[in-house]
Amino acid sequence: MADLLSIGLSGLTANKTSLAVTGHNITNVNTPGFSRQDAVQATRNPQFSGAGYIGSGTTLVDIRRSYSEFLSAQVRSSTALSSDVEAYRGQIEQLDSLLAGTTTGITPSLQKLFSSLQTAAEDPANIPARQLVLSEAQGLARRFNTVADRITEQNSFINKQMSAVSDQVNRLATSIASYNDAIAKAAANGQQPNDLLDAREEAVRQLSTFVGVTVVAQDDNSLNLFVGTGQPLVVGNSTSRLEVVPGQGDPLRFEVNLVNGGSSQGITSLITGGELGGLIRYRAETLDPTLNSLGRLALAVSDQVNTQLGQGLDLKGQVGSALFGDFNDPALASLRARAFSTNTGSVQPALNITDTSVLTTSDYRLEYDGTTYTARRLSDGEAMTVIASPLTTPPSSVPASYPATLTFTDKAGRGQGFELALGSEPVAGDKFLLQPTRRGATTINAQLDQPDQLAFAAPLRSAADLQNRGNAVIGQPQITNTLEPMRLSNLKAIDSIELTFDSVNGRLQFTSPLPAGVTITSPAMPAPPAPQVQTIGVTSGQNNQLSYVVEVDDGVMVQSYTISQSFSGRPENGDKFTLGFNSSGVSDNRNALKLVDLQNKQTVGVDPTITSIGTGVSFTDGYGDLVERVGTLTAQSRQDSEATGAILKQATNNRDSLSAVNLDEEAANLIKFEQYYNASAQVIQVARSLFDTLINTFR
């Protein structure tokens, strides 16, 4: 009877626990990260009797947690990937809307500027038309400024979000370390603390939404967590922390450091996954290149327009003034080169733009080891060749005395379109971040406010003598080399230079004497040691292209003008043609037409080493390429979002199929264990009845 009673009591105890476990499952059906538990039973050791071994009941051996590390690891990795993509998508969709919008993009303002130039070119003396050009230039500059400001605000938001996310990472890391300590202590008795394990697993999953982590289990049931390429975040019950600080090279671009005790390590480029990884990836892959590309376009527009205006004359007969501000202003040049906060020297270099057409959209890092400068283009990691030279001499490989300039070329020999001015020698170990185009769109401004100062007229003119007997026509001269600045006194020295046709030799001859200080040469006949009259061969009855060089010395500066013009028809012997300063070019629109042509001229991203075919793109195409690139990345991010969302859902479903609580199943278990409980109680009742019968027998 005692054995039967013991058997019944063991069943009663086991099923009571099973009912408690089932109730625990039901009440935690909505608890995040909870894993279903089961009571595991085993038979007690049987007792031997003459008839064999007789069972002695049941015992509980474990409260088992329905858990798979493989499935949970899939959920963690899928969560990190999905959060990364969602953070990236959330940012790039805003940027795409900004750049591609008909009211917020750059293209409409560009088109309005060149449309106004076309209107003004049709009537170059019309002051209202000229005023419209100034207004549209101001509108274009403001549009560049506004778009750049919006992108800069997005960068500021990313900085703040990185700080907020790092705080969440640190909170969860501390919580996981506490769970590690509690679990290690609780598991010392040989059993698993299931609810603590679930809570820790949920904390790790939540951590994966903020940053990608690698989880390594230890023998004492604790988990070690690593970020990046193996940087420890949680080791046992100790933690490191993430700290978001202003960048060493660019304080407007926050970086992530891993702080452990008194040491700090920069890990920004190593972080992947989670919201933090997505924000960093978006900034590096999209935000920075977009701001640089926009800045390069703004620099190219201001440079090309200003340069072309400087090749013409305004309504007052003066050399044209700049429409946009000087992007090489010392205050702006100093912002493009930043000394690292860790530098021991005090050198603050200035970066000057030398050629906007060959600028890239990359930043650069310059380092100095005490004797040699090394530089690297950050977009592709290519090492640059750095040539140091004194400011007053051409570049050479000889180390420069200071002040000095540094020029940069890539392995193909292409210049990068900028130079660095150093006032003194840096200290060994100093580093500098070079951002040639980063602030181009932020700082562009339209400074010209007088419409009559727009230089729409060409500086030189030609005409055929009215007394000529032939029908030859000479085209208007074009200056094919760019002079900065073009001097008015030199231009005025080119005064009524006469060309006479010599039918015997078939040549145009510059009539002697030439104006004071003027020398004329041509590619076909270089200037001789002693001055003599220059001639240019022409073929009567055909279209000829004249090309010659006029060198002018006004006593202050020598300037050379390479001139190209057409010559056609049939001249007669002695026919005369003149070349001179365009002193009354009020209605001349030749330079205005060249300004209009800039809209489709390939002036952005030119490769100077390729001369056989045209390289580079126009202003409109350059911005179109930027919009297309961002749009493509946006579409890709949406596809990635759908894909990673589906992967996360599948991983979660796989995990839930094993670990989640099924209320129908638990309800069935309640009924089953209730019946088991009642049956065990009935065993006890039978044992009692038998015992009573036995006692009554001996009375």
TrEMBL record:
It holds the Pfam family Flg_bb_rod. One of its GO terms (cellular component) is extracellular region. GO terms for molecular function: structural molecule activity. Residues 93-324 form the Flagellar hook-associated protein FlgK helical domain. Residues 7-34 form the Flagellar basal body rod protein N-terminal domain. InterPro entries: Flag_bb_rod_N (IPR001444), Flg_bb/hook_C_dom (IPR010930), FlgK (IPR002371), FlgK_D2-like (IPR049119), FlgK_helical (IPR053927). It is found in: Bacterial flagellum; Secreted. Residues 341-386 form the Flagellar hook-associated protein 1 D2-like domain. Its main location: other. It comes from the Bacteria. GO terms for biological process: bacterial-type flagellum assembly. Residues 659-696 form the Flagellar basal-body/hook protein C-terminal domain. Keywords: Bacterial flagellum, Cell projection, Cilium, Flagellum, Secreted. Belongs to the flagella basal body rod proteins family. PANTHER family: FLAGELLAR HOOK-ASSOCIATED PROTEIN 1. This is Flagellar hook-associated protein 1. It comes from Pseudomonas guineae.
